[in-house]
Structure formats: C-alpha cells, structure tokens
Amino acid sequence: MSDALRCELLIVGAGFSGLIMALEARRQGITDIVILEKASDIGGTWRDNVYPGVACDIPSHLYSMARRPNPDWSRSYAPGPEIQSYLQGVARTDGLYDLCRFGQELSAARWDGRLWQVETKTGDRFAAPVLCLALGALHLPLIPKVPGAKSFPGPSFHSARWDQSVDFAGKRVAVIGSGASAVQFLPEVARQAHHVTLFQRSAPYVLPRADRPITPRLRALHRRWPWTRRVRRWWLFHSFEARHMVFRGRPMAVRKAMKMWRRTLEKTIADPQLRADLTPPYRIGCKRILSSNAWYPALARDNVTVIPAGLSRIEGHRLIAETGATAEADVLIWGTGFHVTDALRGLRITGRDGQSLARRWLRGLEAHLGLAVSGFPNLFFLLGPHSGLGHNSVVLMIEAQAEHIARLISAMRENALPAVEPRAEAQEAFETEMDDRLAATVWQAGGCSSWYQDRRGRNTTLWPGTVAEYRKRLARAGLDHYIPAPPPP
Q1: From CA 35, how far away is CA 182, in angstroms rounded?
Q2: Domain ranges in the chain?
Q3: Is 462 exposed, middle or buried (0-12, 13-18, 19+ CB in 10 A)?
Q4: Are the C-beta atoms of 13 and 135 separated by less than 8 Å?
Q5: d(CA 410, CA 29)
Q6: Which pLDDT band holds residue 126 (cuts at 50, 70, 90)?
C-alpha cells in the first residue's frame, strides 16, 4: 500500500457535482484539489447512461453551469451524448482532467482528528482536511430479485448498463419498469424490435415537452449577444419554478397539469382499456412527473403490448406477471431505476469518536441543509438528503451547495478553524422541518410509494420548497450553522 497522497480538498465523483465543486473551490482560492473517479472518464450519469433516446428532461440552457454557459446546444432538451461532450469540454477548458485520478473507487474514509484518511478499492490512499462526496443519486442500478431471472437465456441488462452489441431487429423484447429511463428508450427499441412487451407495475404521468432543434441562427445570436442566453435561462428558470405549485397542491396548477396530461393521453391512445391501464391510480406529482412526446405513441403501436402488472417470475423465455399474464421474450431490459435512499448507507465512513455513518443512518438519511452531518467534521455531501428536486434543474442546487461549501472553507481559513461540523440542534431542527413540510405534500399524501421514500416510507430525497428558497437559504448560512470540531486527544 502506497503512502497517502495529501491535498487540501478531496472530491469523490467527477460528474456535474464534482466538477462544479472543483470550480467553486478554485474561485475561493483553493487550488490543491484531487478528484477521485471510479470510472475512466468524467461525466457520471451522462457517461454511464448511453441507451437509445437518452436525454435530459430539463431544458439544455437550464441544465448547464451558470458560469460555464453553452450557446451551442443543438436542441431545447439536449441528448445525453451532447451533455457528456459539454462536461468533457468544461473539464478540458478548465484543466479539471489534471485534478482527476481515474479508476479510483471509494472504499473507506476515516476522520483521524485532523484529516480524512481515504482508501480506494485499488489500495491507494489519500488524505485531506476536507472531503466532499459528489457521488450522485443515480449511479447504482437497481435490479429486483425475480425468481428464475438466471434462467432467462437471452441478453439481459439494466438500462444504465446498456448492451450495445444487441441487435433488436426481429427480436421479442421485454421491458421491466416504466420510469424515466424506460420512457426514453422504449420508443426507440419499439422502432427496431419485432415486438415489445412492457411490464408496468405503476403507470406514470407523462407530459409533452416543447423539444425542438435550436436553429444555427439562434445559436449564433446566443454566441454574439450573451444577454440573450441569460434571458432565455431566466425565463426557463421561472417557468419551471412555477411547476412547484403542482406539488404544493394548488388547484389551478393541478388542473392545468391534469388537463395537459389527459389531452395527450386521449389524443394518442384510442383503446379504452389501454387508456385505463395507462391512467395512474395516484395524484399527479406523487411520483416523478415524466416528459416525452414519444411515450404514448409508442405504446399505441401494433408491436407493443402493455401488461399492467409487475414481473412475478421468469421461466426461460417465458415471463409471468403478478396477474398471471405471460409474454415470451428474447431480450430482457430492466428499466427499474436505481438505489437512491439506500445507496449512501453502504459507504464505510467513520467520523469523530469512531462513529459509523452507516449506523447513524440506519433510521434514515439526514444531513443539515442536505450538506453535512454532526459528528463528521469537514465532510460535505453534494445533492445529499433533502436536496433533490421534482420540478426544476438540480444543477442549480449543486451550484448553491458548492458555493456554500467553498465559502465555508474560506471562512475557516480566515478564522483559523481547522475543522467544523454542523450544530446538532441545527441539524435536528432542519430534519424536523423537512418532515413537517413534506408530510402535507403530494409526495407523501398523494396515494403512492416512490423512490423518493426510504423503506420506512420517509421522504429523505426531496427539498420541499422552491430552488430560489434553497439558494437564498444557503447564501445566508455561514459559520453560525457550525461548531469547531473537537481536537484529537
């Protein structure tokens, strides 16, 4: 085992969160930075998800860094490869590749009283006074344990581990799940396959989106006159902030969203039974609202069958639903999402006085302002508990968090504070506030269970307010939210 490589700031993860954190730290004069990345390139979600049809469900000009704008987005909603190219371009231009250590997956981290001692699965060691975990929420594929799954003789893979070698022409394809990924890839697969069978445990609300090419003339305008780009982003931001009204249950907003959804469904689905099968049995917003112009037309195709039930078991090529309905398949695609609320529990993180983060979170994830945990000095999370969104761009949340962390590190320098952690009473008050505010939302009271919730039914994923509220709150938060960590014995 080699000696530990020491730096001032150690970041784990080189997706949007990790890159933005490094850029904000540099703005505060922090230059001794190392980024650990388990893969061979940056990009996170946009590096891993390469299925056909992959795209952002937030407009491109809003789903990008405020300080690293891109005037050349090709579409209103950028396809995945273009987002990955954008991130690579930012990393190259800003020299972030020089900070990265690839093939370094986090194994364990321990606070020794002065530094975070970090070990990766290759046995390499790193040490830093400040550790930022930018791991993302959607990186550990979730494949349910279905009896007989190993008996399936054909290609079987998760959407985030897409098998590019599979040719769907003439094949019978089974898709398990109807979440965000399936809504994007199923229409593409249906154009190629002989037949597609969708096993849909719960129907999603899918709204249309104003996706269109951004003309070369408009792109040239954004390049020449940057203020036009800023106006576009401002308008998009406020348009999407208004969608929060749906989750707050405002009648006018809910009626408008439901009218848009119903009009889309009825326009594309003629069969009454299929319409019924595609009608969610819960209030709009309870689960993630999806956007697609291709989903319902794809399900109306002659070569697509919807089985409105989950998959119960597999017997070779034969797939049996919970209702007893069956389908034959040559290819099996799991569109079953990711480990979210349980992903961080597997981390081997040891804080002050030997505290285990996994043990601390046995009753559920918690972090003050979604960022830090008492008893774990100088440890920060990007897109941690209660900082996900259901209505706007998470890049805006990441930027607010990174700016807060970078300012905090700078303030620690100025005040000669080697280590801080959140005040326990502040963290407890924040968690109580989150539970109280979320209890009355559609996410908790809308008649569904979702990946926003943990196994106890507690929503530990989402921020209950607007992006503007969160950004103002973090901008005002400073050292007063933290206490000096006790020195080592």
Answers
A1: 32
A2: 5-140+339-484, 149-204+244-334
A3: buried
A4: yes
A5: 8
A6: very high
Maximum alpha-carbon separation in the chain: 72
Whether the per-residue pLDDT at 478 is higher than 50: the answer is: yes
Task: Just give the CATH number of 149-204+244-334.
Answer: 3.50.50.60
CA distances from 437 to 100, 101, 457, 468 (A): 39, 40, 15, 16
The alpha helices in 243-345, defined as continuous H runs, are 244-247, 251-268, 272-277, 295-299
CB 71 within 8 A of CB 222: yes
Write the CA distances from 269 to 184, 391, 411, integer angstroms: 18, 26, 58
Model pTM score? 0.96
- Whether 149-204+244-334 and 5-140+339-484 are alike in CATH topology: the answer is yes
CA distance 100 to 314: 43
What letters, b where the CB count within 10 A reaches 16 and e where it falls short, cover 405-443? bbbbbeebeeeebebbbbbeebbeebbeebbeebeebbb
Residue 117 main-chain phi, psi, to 5 deg: -95, 115
CA distances to 26, 89, 166 from 475, in Å: 18, 28, 49
Separation between Cα atoms, residue 17 and residue 12, nearest integer Å: 9
CATH class (in words) of the domain with range 5-140+339-484: alpha beta
E strands in 112-257: 116-120, 125-128, 130-133, 156-158, 172-176, 195-199, 206-207
For the chain, what's the residue count? 489
pLDDT digits (tens, 9 = 90+) for 301-318: 999 999 999 999 999 999
What the block records as the tokens of 73 is 């987005």
